[in-house]
Structures are given as C-alpha cells and as structure tokens.
Amino acid sequence: MNLREQIEDSYSTAMEGLDVPWMLKQWAQRTPDKACLIWCPFDGDYRSFTYAELFDKSRRLAAGLSTRGAKPGDFVLLHMDNSPEFIVSWYACAILGAVAVSTNTRSVARDLSYFTEVTEAVCSLTQPKFANLIKDACPDLAFIGVTDNDAGQFRADAGELIRSTGGIAFDDLFADRPLALRPPDHRRNLSIQFTSGTTSRPKAVLWTHANALWAAKTNAQHLRIRHEDVTLTSFPLFHTNAQSYSMLTTHWTGGNLVLQPKFSASRYWQVVLDHQVTWTTMIGFSLKAMATRPVPRHHLRFFLLGVRAPEVESYFGVATVGYWGMTETLTQGTIADFDHLGPPMNIGRCAPEYQIQVRKPDGQLCGPRELGHLHIRGVRGVTLFKEYYRNPVATESAFDADGWFETGDIVRSDEDGWLYFSDRGKDMLKVGAENVAASEIETVIMQTGLASELAVVGQKHHMLDEVPVVFVIPSDPGMDAATIEERVIEHCKVNLPDFKVVRSVHVVDELPRSTLEKIAKNVLRERLPPITEGR
C-alpha cells in the first residue's frame, strides 16, 4: 500500500463502526425527549418531533417498506417538498439500507423518467400534487406512497387521489414494530442527488454513509455548531445545502432543526423569534426579498451566505461567512474562520480537511489575482462523493491521475491568500438557488427542429442572478420570429422544470465566434440588458 492509499485508508478507518442510523440512535438514547425537528407549515400549528419519535417513526417506516418488498441496496425515489415526511423517509431509507434518491420537485415528467431509469428505483414516496406525475412518468415502480398533505396543506381529496393512482397512503406504510438496526457499515451506499452537469442530462451524485457523517461532523466543526444551537431551513431538502448543512449538521450535534415548506420573507422573522433560531443559511435571492423589512431583536449569530458581506452584517446584525462547496464535496471545501472573516466577497480559504489547487488551462498553478480552475482533493466515499452512479466515464474524467477533482468553477486568490469566486467554467447558469447547465436546455430546444444552431446564455436578473435565454439561427428562414419563440418556450415548458425554461428567444442570422469557431457566448451575454424589475 503506497502512502496515498495509507492516508485514504486512515480517513475511512475514522468512520469505522458508524453510520447514519447510529447517529440518530445516539440522540434517541441520550436526549429522547429533546425536539430534533420543529415543523412550521404555512397552514396550521407548529409541530414538534423528539429524537426518540423521529428514530421510532423512521424505523417503523423502514419496516413497512421492507414488508412491501424494498430491500437493502434498492433505490427509493423521494419526490417531496419540505415536510416531516421527507425527513422520516430519508432516515427510513438509511435504516433499511436502501438508497434515498431525493429529486427536485420542480422536475417535469421527462426528468423523473430519467431519474428512475438511472437508479432503477423500486418505489416512490411523494405528496398528492405529484402523485399523477409520478404514476405517469415512472410506470415501473412497484408502488407509490402518498401523504395526505402537500407540505402541510391538507388534501381532502388525498384518499381518492391515492385510489385513482393505485398508490398507498403514506400512513399505511408504517409497521407496528420498528425494523432492527443492521450492523453499521460506513461504506454502504446512502443517497443520490442529481446535479446539473455539462452534458445534456444531470449526473447522479452517490453518497455513502461515511459521506453523510463526514459532512455532518465537518459542517459542525467549520460553523462551531453546538448541542444548544437552533437552525432554520426553508431551502429544499432535496439539495445538499439543506440536507447536509442544515439537517445532518443539526442531528450530528443533537440540536433543533426548524423547518419551513419554503422560504417566505413575510414569515421569516416570526419563526426565527418563536424558536430563538441561532443560525441559518442564506442566498442573495432571500436577502433581497427581506432587505426592505425591519429587523427585530434576535438571537442569530450568523448567516452562512457564501461570501463575506459587511453591508448584510450591518443591516441584519449577524456575521456572514464566506465558503464554497458543491454536492460532490458534501461540505465546504473552502471557508472563512469566525475569528478571521476576511475581506468583502471572499469565499474563505482551503478547509483544513481538504487540499485545493487553482490551475491555469495548461495545468500550471495560478498566482495571486490570476483566474484559474478550482481543483480539490479528498478521499472518495468519505470526504468526497463516491461516484457518478452508472456513469463511469463521467466519474473517471472528473478526477486526474493524482486524485484531484475538477470542480468546474473559476476562482482567484488575492495577495494574502483569500479566495474569490469568479465564474462557472463549464457553461453553467445560476438561476436563483439552482445550477443550470446551458447544454441541457440547448439539447431540449434542438429537439424542436426549429433551429439549425443555437446558444443558451444567462441574462442578468435583479432577483434571480440570471435567467436563461436562447439565440437561435432558424432551420426555416421563412418562419417568423414570434412563432419560433412561442413554439420553443412551449416545448421547454413541457420538457424542462420552470427554472430552466428560457425567458426569451432571439432569432439571429449568425452567432459570434471565438477561437476554434466556438460560439462566443460572452458576446451574446453583452447584448442582453439586465432585467431590473418583474419576476
């Protein structure tokens, strides 16, 4: 065993005897009556779940899934907006030894068919508003479990909907007796999240139990989270931000997780005050929505924002922490320290658990102020994701011979070593909180046959950072631009989630070119004035 293999083995050994059910069991035994989840729906009263209750419910759901044929190693599609049922289901999969496939609830039928094709999911747990979509898009599932509410909004027609789709009521999935825990195995596959890639379809990022625990522990250390802390998340649990940074971090420390169905600027402060929330994650979209509202006296220590923002600190009375991370890194690969938050807009420095490099296109290391591609090195299956599931080509191409993972992001450092985010190097758009691959939208639009060539770029937007638009050279020069735009947007609405639908279609005779005859997308972006009002 060479030195690198010895080092990687030591990281894996650190997780020996641990898995996600072990984490829940710890707190269910040590603090059984402490609230681990406080649910704050938009309709109805708050509801609290203790550690003992969450552990028991998850084990009984795991037993019920097992009774209906789900086995260790099977994949279970979780297509739910934020809700207690999502968290119970996610932990139930971990206890059963199944793999939770958490999917974006803004996905369309085309996406869901693809997700189940890649994972060969055996069943799905969902909410009434998605039941028909799941049934039609995923006909090979053994069964669909359906809750009686849509993220806290009770559905009187849920029973009829369940019957018409051939589903099973979510509450009927619970067994009377909890499933016995399996021996801990940190190497066991745990979960999948689909992330936008640079190819035409998203990639399935596979985490192990060691990945989840590594993320939980490391998040807590980076952010100095303690047993007494209370976090609020309103960001979607199907993404790494809420799933790793908020849920897993809180349950590693035995703290309180306050959960809302989604972000609401009008409800935010009341929930923060009611539950004495001490920290939360934030994004620019949310801050803009709250910027005109008065700030009450509160207990918040910091916003995990992504960049250091002194003006936000001054207005809201909190610290702001710069960091960088992605689904493949589980936690923050770069982060600032609370005692040394650094200059404005920094994303911190290399986290102590990782190694990073900023490289020029020729592979040489960048100096201060030089833009370069960010690479990170860790241990696959422990400190970095295990693989892109059923996509060995993508997995292999993501790592070089020395184990460095190419993130696709462009950064720079200053003379003092602080890092700054510059751009997404792989033709990615940032639409609100969602990463969007331009190539996926381009592939869908080419299916219409309306374009001989096209290019999707981001147009600056006052609330969403940017929105996708497309420049099209029509395949039929005689077709009028209005008809082309109408048909392209309609096709996108059917085949893409709403945040990937192009806002406008620009019909052109030619596209600008750069070296090697590539389309100069920077020139196209410069043609687009920022959107300064509207949604």
Give an overview in words.
The protein is α/β, with parallel strands linked by helices and 535 residues long. It is 32% helix and 25% strand. The chain has 16 helices and 28 strands. The strands form 6 sheets. The chain has a 9-stranded mixed sheet. A hairpin with a 2-residue loop joins strand 24 and strand 25 (434-437). Helix 6 (128-137) packs parallel to helix 7 (158-165). The longest helix has 17 residues, at 51-67. The chain is globular, with a radius of gyration of 23 Å. The termini are far apart.
Radius of gyration: 23 Å
Q: Helix/strand-derived class?
A: alpha/beta
Low-confidence stretches: none
Helix content: 25-40%
How many beta-strand runs?
28
Major sheet description: 9 strands, mixed
**Quaternary assembly:** single chain
Count of discrete alpha- or pi-helical segments spanning 4 or more residues: 16
Averaged pLDDT:
94
Q: Gap between N and C termini, in Å? A: 57 Å
Widest sheet, order of strands: 2-1-13-12-14-15-16-17-18
Strand content bin: 25-35%
Described by the principal axes of the CA atoms, the overall outline is globular
Short description:
The chain has 535 residues and is an alpha/beta fold. 32% of the residues lie in helices and 25% in strands.
Write the layout of secondary structure elements.
Layout: H1 3-13, H2 20-30, E1 35-39, E2 47-50, H3 51-67, E3 75-79, H4 84-96, E4 99-102, H5 109-119, E5 123-126, H6 128-137, E6 143-146, E7 149-150, E8 153-154, H7 158-165, E9 168-169, E10 189-195, E11 203-208, H8 209-223, E12 230-233, H9 240-253, E13 256-259, H10 265-274, E14 279-281, H11 284-290, E15 302-306, H12 310-316, E16 319-325, E17 332-335, E18 349-350, E19 355-359, E20 372-377, E21 387-388, H13 392-398, E22 404-413, E23 419-424, E24 428-431, E25 434-437, H14 438-446, E26 451-461, E27 465-474, H15 481-495, E28 505-507, H16 521-526
Parallel strand pairs: 1-13, 3-4, 3-5, 4-10, 5-6, 6-9, 12-13, 12-14, 14-15, 15-16, 27-28
Antiparallel strand pairs: 1-2, 7-8, 10-11, 11-21, 16-17, 17-18, 19-20, 20-22, 22-23, 24-25, 26-27
Helix pairs in contact: 2-3, 3-4, 5-6, 6-7, 8-9
